Please model this.
Amino acid sequence: MSRISPTLEGFRAAWRRPSLFLAEIAWRWTVGATTCALLLFGFFEYLRTLLVTNGDLLFLRTRQPVLIGQAISHILRGSLGRVALAGLLAALALCFAWIVAASVGRNLTLRALLEYFSSRKDAAGDASKNGARSQDQGTGTKPLRALFGLSLFRAAVVLAAVLAFQGAAILARFASSPEHPQSGLVFLIFLLLAGLICIAAWCLNWFLSLAAIFAVRDHEDTLGSLGSAVSLCRERFGAVFAVSSWTAVAHLVAFSGMMTVVSFPLGLAPLINVRLLIACITIVVLIYLALADWLYIARLAGYVCIAEMPEALVASAPMLTLPPEGERTLPRTPVQTIDRDERILSDVPNLVVET
Model:
């Protein structure tokens, strides 16, 4: 049996099914556009609520840093509490909207990917497994319920990472004192702790995103799908690592290209219009985000390929096996006979000379 490359199958599925890419863009960009619009609207509305007195204007016009700082602190005094409360409510609303959109969108994309790879499997070899899977799905959990739980856990991971960053800042501050200030050591400790926090948060988020495959395919609950994701990584570590590595390299190349392209209009900033500069940078960033979503679909399709076709992935070249001890026989070799009548091979000495 020929081996299947999950990475190539993932890219092939993302290329042949552009509707998956468009669906991914639809729910991701909807949440992103809502977040940007809410931030801009809230920022301008907050600026309208600020009261600027004549004394503040006088301090601002002096162009003295100390007086300007006093004017800004006086303008913002008493309004930071409202900003914090409004930001908290907006964050909760956006988090709930993201959980709903991510659960519904992931359910649709995974169903389409499972149908795509099911149609590519050998019907004769996998018919019994498909029938057993359909029986298991009848008594399982609804996929949306498990996806809601997974999305809620992902949001909790982000919140825990934010709180962990604050805790890391507090712990790093103990390395310095007013008598012996060591700002460099504090920064290094915070950087080390922040790196560990980012790695832990990324790993948890990756496992939760992988568990969505089993929540949709096997109708497992939240914890059951997470356990299946861990089992898949343990049993098919090489294939999972290959898909993750190649898509990460492609993502890094796309990001490097985006940064290179953005650097050109930034270098020409003094020569071109500011609005044109902002428009060019926005277009380049949107193209990069669209490519990143396409790569995410390709990576997700690779994971689905690994989960759907495990036999093909572990297939290897046939190996020679020895028969049991009782059935072993010595190899038959042709028996070589010597013609005794041949004078050259005769045992009598000097026979050739005598004749």
Summary: The chain is about 75% helix and 0% strand. The first helix runs from residue 6 to 16. The CA atoms of residues 211 and 229 lie 5 Å apart.
